[in-house]
Amino acid sequence: RPVALVTSGGTAADLENQSVRCIDNFSTGLRGAIAVEQLLQRGYAVVHLSRKGSAEPFARALSQYLGLQQANHGLDVQ
């Protein structure tokens, strides 16, 4: 079974030894999360390293599902 390592989300690099200033990018991690989804569907074992708060694999589908569940709450819809 092939293995893939996917990194996603923003990164920060210190400009000084004392970490007073840094350069930061604010990537959402969406492209990496989608890559993980696609690799898993193709049979890969995937290690996903992401920044806290970045997009997570399958989160888009799950949030849509949960939104539907909340919309159907109390309407006796299964």
Key phrases:
78 residues; alpha+beta; two-stranded antiparallel ribbon; 33% helix; CoaB-like_sf; DNA/pantothenate metabolism flavoprotein C-terminal domain-containing protein
Q: What's the helix and strand layout?
A:
Layout: E1 3-8, E2 12-14, E3 22-24, H1 30-41, E4 45-50, H2 59-72
Parallel strand pairs: 1-4
Antiparallel strand pairs: 2-3
Give a short summary of the structure.
The protein is of the alpha+beta class and 78 residues long.
Mean pLDDT: 84
Q: What sort of overall outline do the alpha carbons produce when their principal axes are compared?
A: flat
Total number of beta strands: 4
State the separation between the terminal residues, measured CA to CA: 37 Å
- What pattern of helices and strands is seen along the backbone? EEEHEH
How many domains would you count in the coordinates?
A: 1
Question: Proportion of β residues?
Answer: 15-25%
**Low-confidence runs:** none
Structure commentary:
It is built from two helices and four strands; from the N terminus they run E-E-E-H-E-H. It is an alpha+beta fold and 78 residues long. The protein has one domain (3-72). A hairpin with a 7-residue loop joins strand 2 (12-14) and strand 3 (22-24). It is flat and about 45 Å long. One of its GO terms (molecular function) is catalytic activity. This is DNA/pantothenate metabolism flavoprotein C-terminal domain-containing protein.
